Amino acid sequence: MADAKLNVGFLGLGIMGEAMARNLLKSGLFASVTVWNRTLAKCQTLVSEGAKMAETPAAVVSSCDITFAMLADPDAALAAVFGDNGVLKGISAGKGYVDMSTVDEATSTKIGEAVTAAGGRFVEGPVSGSKKPAIDGQLIIMGAGDKELYEQCQPAFRVMGKKSFYLGATGAAARMKLVVNMVMGSMMGAFCEGMALAEKSGLEQTALLEILGLGAMANPMFALKGPAIMSRSYPPAFPLKHQQKDLRLALALGDSLNQPLPVAAAANESFKAAKALGRGDDDFAAVYEATQQK
Ligand SMILES: NC(=O)C1=CN([C@@H]2O[C@H](COP(=O)(O)OP(=O)(O)OC[C@H]3O[C@@H](n4cnc5c(N)ncnc54)[C@H](OP(=O)(O)O)[C@@H]3O)[C@@H](O)[C@H]2O)C=CC1
Ligand SMILES: O=CCCC(=O)O
Predict the structure, then answer these.
(1) Where are the extended beta strands (E) located within 109-222?
(2) What does the pLDDT look like over 204-260, one tens digit per residue?
(3) Among protein residues, the one whose CA lies closest to atom 5 of ligand 2
(4) What pLDDT, in 10s, does the model give residues 104-151?
(5) Fewer CB atoms inside 10 Å of the end CB: C or N, the chain?
(6) What are the catalytic residues?
(7) Residue 124 pairs with which residues in a beta bridge?
């Protein structure tokens, strides 16, 4: 992307995608930024800020050199590529497709093989960091797949993130992201149980937060989510349904390798319970609600 300005596209304008696409737009590095979202009305804000809009993934890809995607889950990622007027209908020789959604290796591999069979190039690029890091362009990007495309994406990755890692062949970044989010979900599950036990045993949750924050377990997630848990108010930054999806996919990876994952399996049960309570669209800190069931 160093020479002539490229036309870039973005599929999926949810919590993360809208912020990431906005940063591409604001950077001024690209000749154009063309966006698509399944619910097309959600494109309007970015269009009012200077983005172009296309009515299908195929139309985005055919008008862009590189298209990024940030979609909910494996079903969404596959639908955008293989569906009617999907990515495959717009791919041609040399075009790049970079899927930044959190999906499993099988999904990513299927997409990568189809894109390359059509003459395109493929990188998977899932991210760590939530709504605020996405807004601030401070995501951590895990890349794998076509190394040349990964290098060509560096200017875009620097706009969206603070650091990117090239991890190897397609699948490596998907696996890394699932491992990272398995640890995160397990930590959040344990943290919420601690908050619940503190409260039930007559301790101040604020005191627990302060004590945890001063010791070896201090971390930004407890500091950020602790107050939300105390107020039992969970505006979504990372929707709980996506955290449960990531635990489910990580457990499936563990199954396929005979890797015991008892802590993650228990955390997954808590997230499933919270989802059953109707908390799927709340922030993943709402797993606390599963600890409040009688
Ligand atoms: N939020 C976070 O903190 C982080 C999220 N992630 C991952 O990033 C991805 C996006 O997350 P986030 O932005 O929070 O999610 P949102 O739920 O806010 O957005 C999901 C996006 O996927 C689209 N979508 C859902 N189903 C389909 C489908 N069948 N076909 C096409 N498009 C579909 C939605 O379109 P529509 O508007 O029409 O519903 C929307 O654009 C997920 O994989 C998530 O795990 C990774 C890091 C952090
Ligand atoms: O996949 C979501 C990750 C959220 C985070 O890293 O804070």
Answers:
(1) 121-124, 127-128, 139-145, 161-166
(2) 999 999 999 999 999 999 999 999 999 999 999 999 999 999 999 999 999 999 999
(3) 129
(4) 999 999 999 999 999 999 999 999 999 999 999 999 999 999 999 999
(5) C
(6) 177
(7) 99, 144
Euclidean distance between CA atoms 219 and 188, whole angstroms: 11
Pocket of ligand 1, beta carbon within 6 A: 12-17, 37-39, 42, 70-73, 75-76, 79-80, 101-102, 127, 130-131, 237-239, 242
Max Cα separation, the chain? 65
Structural domains present in the chain:
7-170 (3.40.50.720), 175-292 (1.10.1040.10)
CB 205 within 8 A of CB 226: yes
From atom 33 of ligand 1, which residue's Cα is the shortest distance away?
A: 76
Q: How far is the CA of 237 from the centre of ligand 2 (A)?
A: 9
Q: Cβ–Cβ contacts within 10 Å for residue 120, how many?
A: 24
Find the ligand nearest to 249 CA: 1
How many C-beta neighbours within 10 Å does residue 21 have?
29
Residues in the chain: 294
| End-to-end C-alpha distance for the chain, whole angstroms | 56
**Residues 217, 167, 132, 13, Cα dihedral to 10°:** -140
Q: For residues 245 and 73, is the Cβ–Cβ distance under 8 A?
A: yes
CA 192 to chain CA mean position, Å: 22
* Strand locations in 37-134 (E): 52-53, 66-69, 96-99, 121-124, 127-128
**CB neighbours (10 Å) of residue 257?**
9
Place of tokens 């009515």: 55
Nearest C-alpha neighbor of 122 from the set 58, 68, 85: 68
Cα(43) to centroid(ligand 1), Å: 14
Q: What phi and psi, each to the nearest 5 degrees, are found at residue 166?
A: -95, 120
* ipTM higher than threshold 0.90: yes
